[in-house]
């Protein structure tokens, strides 16, 4: 496997790749209703695209309030540190923008992944799109 490159994506130019990844992961695999996956925040968010040998394999987004979300990696690339690379890029960009706290809504099964990146659970478990989630917070050291 080649090194994973993460770059800031252009919502317009990279839209087909961003949509393909998120639809595959959230809508097809996790049965998230499409109307819950796409929202008005997409147009103003900073989007990240992870590429392996130029092929888009993962995505995430950062909102202006420091909320990181829509972290998704295609099945064949899971376990290859793509999620780590996406999250590190999002955290770095948030801090570059002066956002010293980052928040996210994590699926419960993914909390250990986010905890390794410095996030702490700050809520009780709740359902979002029919899946168990928790709110998490990371503060800049």
UniProtKB/TrEMBL annotation:
The record, for Gene3D superfamilies, names: 3.40.630.30
Q: Which InterPro entries match?
A: Acyl_CoA_acyltransferase (IPR016181), Bact_Acetyltransf (IPR050832), GNAT_dom (IPR000182)
Q: Which UniProt keywords apply?
A: Acyltransferase, Transferase
Q: Which organism is it from?
A: Stutzerimonas zhaodongensis
Q: Does the keyword Acyltransferase apply?
A: yes
Which molecular-function annotations from GO does this UniProt entry contain?
A: acyltransferase activity, transferring groups other than amino-acyl groups
Domain N-acetyltransferase per the UniProt entry, residue ranges: 4-141
Protein known as: GNAT family N-acetyltransferase
The superkingdom listed in its UniProt entry is Bacteria
Reply yes or no: does the keyword Kinase apply: no
Q: Which Pfam families match?
A: Acetyltransf_10 (PF13673)
PROSITE patterns attached to this UniProt entry: GNAT
